[in-house]
Design goal:
5% of the residues lie in helices and 58% in strands. It is built from 1 helix and 11 strands. It has one helix at 64-71; strands spanning 4-8, 14-21, 25-31, 34-40, 49-55, 59-60, 83-95, 98-107, 110-125, 131-142, 161-175. An 8-stranded antiparallel barrel has the order 1-4-5-7-8-9-10-11. Strand 9 and strand 10 (131-142) form a beta hairpin.
Length: 176
């Protein structure tokens, strides 16, 4: 059986996240520089090899001061840990169009296993004859599990930055 290789289409993909600010508003951000690939034996993608790398210095939350703080040693420490990486250990079909993605997420020098639900949007040919596929991933991680511990207490109780990070990832791949 032959292996099919897929490369990320970065212009039609988004690596997004959301975090609570002051415990009552949500701040959104994204990474704008990233690479990803899939190698699969068949079109149901079970047990596909999935790799992802993102550049920490491409983080954007729409606020330069906040982005600079996120790159500092208080958070990602981009000078010492310039990339976020993910490597799948399993990709299992749960139902039609629904998968469970399990793998190792490495950031800030820490590697932990994560499990994310994935929705397969299908295969399609674009107007130029390229075969494309798309996946949507959503999930939650606790930033403290990766040593991203900085926070500030609020006078009213609670903290400035939430621990839970919600992931919202849209990926489009092109057949190589």
């Amino acid at each position: 059986m032959s292996t099919t290789k897929w490369a990320i289409d970065p212009t039609h993909s988004e690596i997004g996240f959301k975090v609570k600010h002051m415990m009552f508003t949500t701040i959104s951000g994204k990474f704008s520089k990233f690479e990803a690939s899939i190698e699969s034996e068949d079109t149901d993608f079970e047990n596909a090899k999935i790799e992802f790398t993102g550049a920490i210095d491409s983080i954007s939350t729409g606020n330069t001061d906040r982005d600079t703080h996120l790159l500092s040693p208080d958070f990602f420490d981009a000078a010492q840990f310039p990339e976020i990486k993910f490597s799948a250990t399993s990709f299992t079909k749960v139902n039609e169009g629904e998968y469970e993605l399990v793998g190792y997420l490495t950031m800030h020098g820490v590697t932990k296993s994560v499990k994310l639900p994935a929705e397969f949007s299908g295969l399609m040919k674009d107007p130029w004859g390229n075969t494309k596929l798309a996946f949507s991933l959503e999930g939650k991680i606790n930033r403290k599990d990766w040593g991203l511990n900085w926070n500030s207490a609020l006078e009213t109780g609670g903290v400035l930055v939430g621990e839970e990070v919600r992931l919202n990832i849209e990926l489009q791949f092109i057949k190589v």
